[in-house]
């Protein structure tokens, strides 16, 4: 009666596992190459591999060219130590498509059999990873828009600044600007401040510092688009050698200066 009940319980558990949406594999490390001894229907749904194709094989058939060797090394180390591990790994389906796998592996010790087994649970998180990548790309595009360096001629580029300028944005802008100028050298950089909504002594000091840095790199800077109110405010800035800045009222005027 007890054996029959245990068998019924096991069948119920296995049937329940087949109805889960995640992939589940059980492997036996006591056998050569730690082969798969159980595969759920969810695993077949995710990967396209049937139970007959995976039973008796090691899980490495899920790996491919783009699978991270570092992640695989972490998994192997955890298996060797019979430790649990969670990770995100790029795997391959039967048809060759890639998918992102949120993998959880736990070591289970069965006292009755005096043996260890590994249970691996696979969650297909491809949609989440793609959404995350799109979000990161959007952030990158936003950053690029914050520092949109536009080449006007072979030797002249312009950086239009719009909105609020604060310390954080200035440092980010400077970093991106200097990196960009390393790749695409410009003899003259026009910085159009016409669209700035904030203008104070600290910002003027930053522009003076930037002009000095660019000068050391062989690029001259012309500040253009300065509104009358900005010009009047600049005069009140104490101890700021604004006269050292090359300025122009418009982009066209700045181009005329750059061409001389």
Automatic annotation (TrEMBL):
A Pfam match: PAS_9
Keywords per UniProt: Chromophore, Flavoprotein, FMN
Domain PAS, residue spans: 9-82
Positions of the STAS domain: 146-258
InterPro entries, sorted: PAC, PAS, PAS-assoc_C, PAS-like_dom_sf, STAS_dom, STAS_dom_sf
Domain PAC stretches: 83-137
SMART domains for this protein: PAC, PAS
Designated name of the protein: Biphenyl 2,3-dioxygenase
Organism: Cytobacillus kochii
Species lineage: Bacteria, Bacillati, Bacillota, Bacilli, Bacillales
């Amino acid at each position: 009666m007890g054996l029959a009940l245990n068998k019924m319980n096991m069948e119920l558990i296995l049937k329940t596992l087949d109805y889960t949406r995640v992939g589940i594999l059980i492997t036996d490390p006591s056998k050569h190459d730690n082969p798969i001894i159980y595969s759920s229907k969810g695993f077949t749904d995710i990967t396209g591999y049937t139970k007959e194709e995976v039973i008796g094989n090691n899980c490495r058939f899920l790996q491919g060219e783009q699978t991270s060797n570092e992640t695989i090394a972490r998994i192997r180390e955890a298996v060797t130590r019979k430790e649990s591990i969670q990770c995100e790994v790029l795997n391959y389906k039967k048809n060759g498509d890639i998918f992102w796998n949120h993998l959880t592996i736990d070591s289970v010790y069965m006292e009755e059999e005096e043996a260890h087994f590994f249970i691996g649970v696979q969650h297909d998180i491809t949609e989440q990873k793609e959404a995350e990548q799109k979000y990161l790309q959007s952030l990158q595009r936003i950053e690029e828009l914050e520092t949109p360096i536009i080449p006007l001629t072979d030797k002249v580029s312009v950086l239009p600044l719009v909105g609020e300028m604060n310390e954080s944005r200035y440092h980010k802008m400077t970093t991106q600007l200097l990196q960009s100028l390393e790749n695409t050298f410009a003899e003259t950089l026009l910085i159009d401040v016409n669209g700035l909504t904030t203008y104070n002594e600290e910002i003027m000091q930053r522009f003076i510092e930037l002009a000095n840095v660019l000068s050391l790199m062989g690029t001259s800077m012309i500040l253009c688009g300065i509104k009358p109110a900005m010009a009047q405010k600049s005069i009140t800035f104490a101890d700021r050698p604004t006269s050292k800045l090359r300025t122009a009222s418009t982009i066209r005027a700045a181009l005329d200066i750059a061409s001389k």
